[in-house]
Amino acid sequence: MSVGAQIEKFYQEATENDLLWFGEYSDGRALEFDVKGGKVSFPLWSSKSRILRLKKLNPDLLKDIEPKGMSWSDFKKNLLPILQEKDRFVNLNLAGKNLSGFDLPLEQLINNFEKIISAS
């Protein structure tokens, strides 16, 4: 699946279910990846099954990660301010053995999600 298709599928599933998923370690730390330019990316998925599939493909890297779901309103209220303060990117529906995806600014996630919600 292309990156564009992954992103489109993310918005479709996440807005339909009103759930965003991320990976969390047992100590409460969130899964994040270092990316170009000294930035950090916070991966989000549109379903729990996507994280579980990725764990099977990458057991050494992701064995200690557990899926955590959050509604869009809870994400905006609780997690978004932290991600903004830390100047994080997001990566939507990161997939595959090589963890392929596309990092985008938080503002783009917010604008796209809100636009889709208001159109439904």
Calculate the terminal CA-CA distance, rounded to whole Å.
Answer: 25 Å
**Element pattern in H and E:** HEEEHHEHEEH
* Radius of gyration from CA coordinates: 13 Å
Largest sheet: 4 strands, mixed
- Mean pLDDT score: 92
Question: Which shape, going by the Cα principal axes?
Answer: globular
Class computed from helices, strands and strand pairing: alpha+beta
Task: Please explain how this structure is put together.
It is a single chain. A four-stranded mixed sheet has the order 2-3-5-6. Strands 1-4 form a two-stranded antiparallel ribbon. The model has no long low-confidence stretch (mean pLDDT 92). β2 and β3 (39-44) form a beta hairpin. The chain is an alpha+beta fold. It has helices at 3-17, 48-57, 59-62, 72-85, 106-119, and strands at residues 20-24, 33-35, 39-44, 66-70, 89-92, 103-105. It contains five helices and six strands; from the N terminus they run αβββααβαββα. The protein is 48% helix and 22% strand. The radius of gyration is 13 Å and the shape is globular. The relative contact order is 0.21.
